[in-house]
Amino acid sequence: MLIKIEFESDIPIYEQLKRQIIMGIAKGEFKPGEELPSVRQLSGDIGINLHTVNKTYNILKEEGYLTINRRKGAMVKDELPDAKEEYIHILKDELSYLIADAKNRGINMEDFSKICLDIYSEFEKEV
């Protein structure tokens, strides 16, 4: 998987990295049980601080995406996290903001729904 960091973005680097790894898992670029690059290797490959990669891996571990083993490093969990009530609440909050912003910018419900379906379909094709 090619990870691209936008250094000029307002989104923190660790969050960009987290999002890209989650998308890579959803697209099947990272398979359950697969080892991710070491903290040192990934930080060197994309030119970021190794503490940033370590922070990202630990967040993904807390969120149920990764296991971290001292010898093998970070690995994608065999069973990914379920959509629990807490996650559904977060999802609704994020979607509420995105829908409000889209509505304010003149995007109607039909177009918004089509965009969502198109993006979701991209992830369905990949797996």
From TrEMBL:
<dbReference type="InterPro" id="IPR000524">
    <property type="entry name" value="Tscrpt_reg_HTH_GntR"/>
</dbReference>
<dbReference type="InterPro" id="IPR036388">
    <property type="entry name" value="WH-like_DNA-bd_sf"/>
</dbReference>
<keyword id="KW-0238">DNA-binding</keyword>
<dbReference type="InterPro" id="IPR036390">
    <property type="entry name" value="WH_DNA-bd_sf"/>
</dbReference>
<protein>
    <submittedName>
        <fullName>GntR family transcriptional regulator</fullName>
    </submittedName>
</protein>
<dbReference type="GO" id="GO:0003677">
    <property type="term" value="F:DNA binding"/>
</dbReference>
<feature type="domain" description="HTH gntR-type">
    <location>
        <begin position="11"/>
        <end position="79"/>
    </location>
</feature>
<dbReference type="Pfam" id="PF00392">
    <property type="entry name" value="GntR"/>
</dbReference>
<keyword id="KW-0805">Transcription regulation</keyword>
<dbReference type="GO" id="GO:0003700">
    <property type="term" value="F:DNA-binding transcription factor activity"/>
</dbReference>
<keyword id="KW-0804">Transcription</keyword>
